Amino acid sequence: MKPIEYLKLQAKNLHRDFKTQTSSFNQELRRNDYNYDPKFFKFDLLVNDFNIDEEKFTLMNAQHIIAKLCGLEKWTDFTNASPAKIELSILLYTNMDKLEVRDWDEYVLRIETENEVKLDDEFKLQIFEEGFLEWQQDVFYDDYRLSKD
């Protein structure tokens, strides 16, 4: 499966999880409470971390969240991304239990600032593949996925 097809599938799965939504009215809070029976993602965790609008969550919103989990600002960033950027995005996504995108971005920014350079996508990918995760081996994060692919 091509990387972009894999990510499209992840977005569709995230949207499928949203469609398991049931709601009930909470009299105390005077608002709807939403529950999910997800198969792919920890949807409740994503709702909180990404401020998901539980009343109108679309496939486009799901794509946006997947892009964020891949280290991109928005889904359309995949359109012009280099092959190295796409590969790095997949690695960030599939290793979300070992690092957060924010930590990776800070690491790259520190290298660029200290060396007064701008790293290209190929070099970022090389850094990641050659040891970034090894330096993170004792760090674990909540994985938004219910199971790893």
Give the key terms.
149 residues; mainly alpha; two-stranded antiparallel ribbon; 52% helix; 7% strand
Biggest sheet, spatial arrangement of strands:
1-2
Basic shape: elongated
**Quick one: how many beta strands?**
2
Structural class: mainly alpha
- Write the H/E string, N to C: HEEHHHHH
Q: Describe the largest sheet.
A: 2 strands, antiparallel
Radius of gyration: 17 Å
Low-confidence stretches: none
Oligomer: single chain
Explain the overall architecture.
The chain has a two-stranded antiparallel sheet. The chain contains six helices and two strands, in the order αββααααα. α1 packs across α3. The radius of gyration is 17 Å and the shape is elongated. It has 149 residues and is mainly alpha-helical.
Q: Which SSEs are present, and which pair or pack?
A:
Blueprint: H1 3-18, E1 22-26, E2 31-35, H2 43-50, H3 59-69, H4 83-94, H5 101-115, H6 121-135
Helix pairs in contact: 1-3, 4-6
